[in-house]
């Protein structure tokens, strides 16, 4: 936790905005695995999760297709964005009758917790997913109904651009909101929009120290192990 967390800082936002991947959904076996498999297949090299985390920690790599394209190109296998996306999606969605990794997705926050927050705050989502990817996982989730707006990469400029947050705020004071994310691009988007930010950063993160320093440099109010720990920041 940050010093702020140890001092039990509490805030009084009116609007809670959540990222999806790594915050509400465990994507270690889906997006992360698909990225690894794509790089392995196209480069022929045995890349690791440690390397993946180094790439994910760089600004602009919230988009897994852009990250995969850059990673492959750096490995000596020049790859366009569209080529990386096409290969990635075969692992994510499945192909030739083989189930995709998307079926491994697991929700990290219970509908009951979302409902408790919804009683006190306006809830929204700003995700780097496409609308199709979002709908596949969330259309049957009981808690989805509690989110007022869902902004995907189909609706706004990609992170770290703050447009998604600005659309949700619709001219309201950004200081009345809190954005919860797990990626450097999330923090940069929050900074660009003037929205307070809380980072999800588990103690077992492979680059915990480096990401901790970067989040704090970008003004994170706190580093939280899990999304449900946001409740610790919210004044009663």
Notes on the protein architecture:
- The protein has helices at residues 3-6, 31-43, 49-56, 64-74, 81-93, 111-118, 131-138, 163-169, 184-193, 208-217, and strands at 15-18, 25-26, 94-95, 98-99, 106-107, 122-126, 147-151, 177-181, 197-200, 223-224.
- 39% of the residues lie in helices and 14% in strands.
- Mean pLDDT is 93; it is low at 1-7.
- With 236 residues, it is α/β, with parallel strands linked by helices.
- Strands 7-6-1-8-9-10 form a 6-stranded parallel sheet, with helices on one face. Strands 2-5 form a two-stranded antiparallel sheet. It has a two-stranded antiparallel ribbon with strand order 3-4.
- The protein contains 10 helices and 10 strands.
- Strand 3 (94-95) and strand 4 (98-99) form a beta hairpin.
In short:
The protein is an alpha/beta fold and 236 residues long.
Number of strands: 10
Please trace the helix and strand order, writing H or E for each element.
HEEHHHHEEEHEHEHEHEHE
**Distance N to C terminus:** 21 Å
Determine the number of helices (DSSP H or I, runs of at least 4 residues). Answer: 10
The Cα radius of gyration reads 17 Å
Mean pLDDT: 93
Helix content: 25-40%
Strand content: 5-15%
Shape: globular
Largest sheet: 6 strands, parallel
- What structural category do the secondary elements indicate? alpha/beta
Which strand order spans the largest sheet, edge to edge or round the barrel? 7-6-1-8-9-10
- Stretches with pLDDT under 50, minimum 5 residues: 1-7
